[in-house]
Each structure stands twice: as structure tokens, then as C-alpha cells.
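re: ur question from yesterday

yeah so i grabbed the chain u mentioned. its 240 aa long if i counted rite. heres the sequnce exactly as i have it in my notes:
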Amino acid sequence: MLLPKTDLEKKLHKAKFKRIQSEENLLDNVLEIFSQVDEDFDRIETNVSSSSKMLQNDFKLNELKLENIYHIEDIKNICIDYRLRFLDTKYFKGKLPVEALSKIKQLENLHQTEIKGFKIIAPSKLFKLEDKDDPLLFAPIGNGYFYLIHKWGNDLHPMRKLLMWPFKNIVNLAVLVLMISYVATLMIPNGLFSKSSTNAQFWIMYFFVFKCIAAVVIFYGFALGKNFNPAIWNSKYFNS
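ran it thru and got these C-alpha cells back, copy pasting raw so excuse formatting
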């Protein structure tokens, strides 16, 4: 039996049909993948922006990076030193980057769980308006431990810890006011209030300057409802 001859036109048509069908299937698969990603990101964004009292996520402990695990006391100390807040992400007014959403999705796929209970470390102003400072996104592991998922934005100013030192407690603030008062007293010209200057006159003037500066600091603190770092690091209230 002789083999039938090859009809090039039919072969060409068949190849074209397979290619088009294959491309359509590929396009459908791609669209389905992107649709699924969009749905996942929408769900993750909802979880991030909503309130959740979850204290623990079902992570696979052997899949967690040890360097990303932090205890609440470590977080508290950093927040107090740098005058930062550690709050639920629902209070965060900045925009969560796509990289953070992607890392959450990767973690969910790796640990086969839906992550909730997100928290963020950031300066107070980031919980009122957008800025470019240094937020860190966490998820609770349990027993007071949190897992660092993503960090974005710029690093904090290297002088921030020193600048926030007076706000750690009332003793630090008092020391700062005493130092400023002393420098301000030294800047007052000799003989401004009398022809001769004595140690007694200097310390009287120092006490007067101290009272003036302390009054301004106290008025500023009470007027704006400010508080010391240990009292605000996990406070959700504006006047803190």
C-alpha cells in the first residue's frame, strides 16, 4: 500500500491551528495566573488594613529565618530609643509596597497558611501621613515573638537616637534643660544687670533662665499632649 502524499497546504493549516490554539491556551493561563495574583494581593491588602487580634500565625518553624525573629522586648527597646511606634497596620497611613505584598504571598505559600495580625514599626508621623522613613512589617509568631517580613523606605537619620534621648524619661529631659540653661546663662553679657559680676549673681541668673526654659518645655509638653517614649511606643492615640 502506497503512502498518501503530503498535502503541504493542509499541514500548514494544521500547524497554524495548533499554534493559535496553543497561544490562546497560554494567554488564558497567563491571564488566570495574573487574576489569581490580583486576588491574592487584594486579600493580603485587606488583611493588612483590617483589625485582627491574632497573636500567632501557623508558621513552619524550621522554615523561618532566625535573624528575622524578634521578641517584643527587643522591639520595645528600639521604639523607646528612637521614639518609634509599634502598632497594628490598620493605623498605618503610608502605602505598602508591592515587594511587601509579594513577600507575604511567598511566606503564605511556603508555610501553607494565611497570615494575619500584621504590625509595623515606624515614626509616629507615618501613622498619620505618608513619608519616606523606615517602616518594618512584622507578623506575630506567638509567645511575644514577631517575624520581620519586609523593610522599606530610607534608613533613619544617624542622629535620631541622640535627638530622641531627652524624651526617654523626665530625668533625661531635666538634664537637657539644665545644660541648655547653663549655656544660655554663659551667653548673657557680663555687667548687663550690674556693674560687677559675682558667682552668686551668675547662679541667680542661671536659676532664672532655667525656670524660663523649663516653663516653655512644660507648656509645650502639656499643650501638645506629648509624652515620654516608654508611654507611646505602642500607643494608638494621636496626642502621645
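noticed a couple things. DSSP finds seven helices and five strands in the chain. also The mean pLDDT is 75.
anyway ttyl
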